[in-house]
Design goal:
The chain is about 40% helix and about 15% strand. It has a 5-stranded mixed sheet, with helices on both faces.
């Protein structure tokens, strides 16, 4: 535009650019000097706090001791003194799995752990749920929540539905979360020996296991919250009675108001649909 005899003012107005922006040139800033009094105060606090505080806590302590200083100044001084705490490194970003809508039994299961208050202590329930027929082929209620108990629940489920091991050529996917019991080598090796394909949910993503989460919700509202267990043995009996009722008498809207037992024996040999 200036080549066409337009003034700089006219050219800037034509493109919507301020003249100050046109003339701006970035200049490197000289490092600001440190405040000796603030450095001395930080040194005194550093020894008392064993060097484990970040700039926010250092700033709070300084203000508690009557040092009026901006938190940004504290951050700048700690950075120059090389006393900032190491930044937390985020873990691997796990990809959330797809939602599974099974169309036959024994093709897609979900498994999880829940706690039940039993008067003076907790009971721990591992449960395996078939996402298609809503049945509970395997479970373990006890006083421990280790990988060993998770394996027992899975072994019961496979024995109930397949008689011991999944036949060759049949694919059964079990989705679990990343709890210590399910990522343990013992659990993974047991699943492989049984012929179960493990699929892990995302981190802090309970919606990745909607079927088992819904089942635990029903169990808590329909049995646990209506009872007052005095001992863990009472809690275990309550779970066993609920499981029988759930399988043989409780109607499910998603199953056309059938029980899991009745629905399972009416539907066979269908595929799995992923959305």
């Amino acid at each position: 535009m200036t080549d066409e005899n337009l003034s700089l003012t006219q050219a800037c107005q034509a493109v919507g650019l301020a003249k100050s922006t046109w003339y701006y040139r970035a200049r490197p800033r000289a490092p600001r000097s440190l405040n000796s009094n603030l450095v001395a105060a930080i040194d005194a606090l550093w020894e008392r706090t064993r060097g484990v505080y970040g700039y926010r806590k250092i700033h709070a302590l300084l203000r508690a001791h009557g040092v009026l200083v901006n938190h940004k100044a504290v951050l700048r001084h700690l950075r120059r003194l090389d006393r900032l705490q190491p930044r937390k490194l985020k873990g691997v970003r796990w990809t959330r799995p797809r939602v599974v809508h099974p169309t036959s039994s024994n093709t897609y299961w979900e498994m999880d752990l829940t706690y039940v208050w039993c008067g003076s202590d907790f009971g721990y329930l591992f449960a395996v749920l078939d996402a298609y027929d809503k049945g509970v082929p395997g479970a373990h209620f006890g006083d421990r929540c280790r990988a060993q108990e998770a394996v027992q629940a899975l072994e019961e489920a496979v024995a109930t539905r397949f008689g011991g091991r999944i036949p060759d050529g049949h694919t059964l996917t079990l989705r679990v979360d990343r709890g210590s019991q399910f990522v343990a080598h013992r659990f993974q090796e047991a699943a492989q020996a049984l012929g179960v394909t493990l699929a892990y949910a995302g981190i802090q993503c309970p919606d990745d296991k909607p079927y088992i989460e819904s089942f635990f919700g029903h169990y808590k509202t329909e049995e646990v919250y209506r009872s007052s267990y005095a001992t863990r043995a009472e809690g275990q009996v309550g779970w066993q009675l609920y499981r029988i009722w759930y399988e043989t008498e409780r109607l499910h809207e998603s199953l056309d108001y059938q029980t899991p037992h009745h629905h399972r024996h009416r539907n066979h040999h269908r595929s799995v649909v992923f959305i």
